[in-house]
Amino acid sequence: MEEKTKKKTTVKRTTTSSERSFKKYAKDKTVILETVNINKTFGEKESEVKALCDVSLKIYEGELLVILGSSGSGKSTLLNMLGGMSVPDGGAILFNNEDISKYNDRNLTSFRKKEIGFIFQSFNLINELTAKENVSLTSDMNSQEIESLFRKLGLAGKLDNYPHQLSGGEQQRVSIARALAKKPDILLCDEPTGALDYESGKQILILLEDLVRKQGRTIVLVTHTQEIARMADRVIRMRSGRIIEEYINNKIESAAKIEW
Ligand SMILES: Nc1ncnc2c1ncn2[C@@H]1O[C@H](COP(=O)(O)OP(=O)(O)O)[C@@H](O)[C@H]1O
Ligand SMILES: [Mg+2]
Predict the structure, then answer these.
(1) Is the pTM here over 0.70, yes or no?
(2) pLDDT per residue over 20-32, tens digit each?
(3) d(C-alpha 63, C-alpha 66), whole Å
(4) Between 198-213 and 168-181, two packed helices, what is the crossing angle to 10 degrees?
(5) In the predicted model, is pLDDT for residue 173 greater than 80?
(6) Span from the CA of 225 to the centroid of ligand 2 (angstroms)
(7) Which of 152, 192, 224, 249 has a Cα at 20 to 30 A from 72?
(8) Minimum-distance ligand 1 atom for the alpha carbon of 70
(9) Domain annotation for the chain: domains and CATH numbers
């Protein structure tokens, strides 16, 4: 497998990130999730789209990884596979030394439920449930724990609001609460600020940053906004279903200081 990975890697590693800094970066880190040469094609014949081509990617525990790329470059397809929401046509996705891409539906659902917190651009809250019910539905947290989590996320007093009674930023916070309440190993965020106004988006980025920097969580953040990559530990850039660049960010900027 190692041989294959080496041969197929055509990723440009930029000067801000010499081979040495990659080694240094990875040295004390544990790989939590890894894709090995995964592929995905949608459609057939004329309508065929190669959404992912030989994507090999390691995700390290405790890092903030930004996946950058324009619309249609394959970011969501990749993120969905990392989260066990869809399976590749070929290649492997390794979690705890197991290939989750070979799991049956039951094991895949269990992986998704237990290990992954997903945050979507469009929040994906259930409109008929209150904020608190949206969170309790998918977690074992009791009332007090949920209340405490809401307070930490700046949602005190919003427990009984329905999604339509919350601003976009608040809805995204509830979706983050829902993700965190499952105590996942890894948070996958697909354009989490994409549906928000600038200020609310910024607050969400600051929140995600805190989760990594203060709580040691692992976050993969997908975005098409170049500037957002400045807050990352490491950046992967995609184009046409391939990783075209990877770099370690030697000058991490705080989310509060980023403008886009
Ligand atoms: N379910 C699907 N059926 C057909 N084509 C799809 C499907 N999902 C994604 N694609 C195509 O795969 C490519 C990558 O899509 P996507 O991963 O959503 O990109 P991104 O998230 O970077 O915008 C696009 O050309 C898109 O149209
Ligand atoms: Mg997308």
Answers:
(1) yes
(2) 788 899 999 999 9
(3) 10
(4) 20
(5) yes
(6) 12
(7) 249
(8) 22
(9) 14-251 (3.40.50.300)
**Residue 231 and residue 204 in contact, taking contact as beta carbons nearer than 8 Å:** no
Chain CA centroid to CA 168, Å: 19
Residue whose tokens read 């807050």: 231
Atom of ligand 1 nearest to the CA of 73: 22
Residue type, 216: G
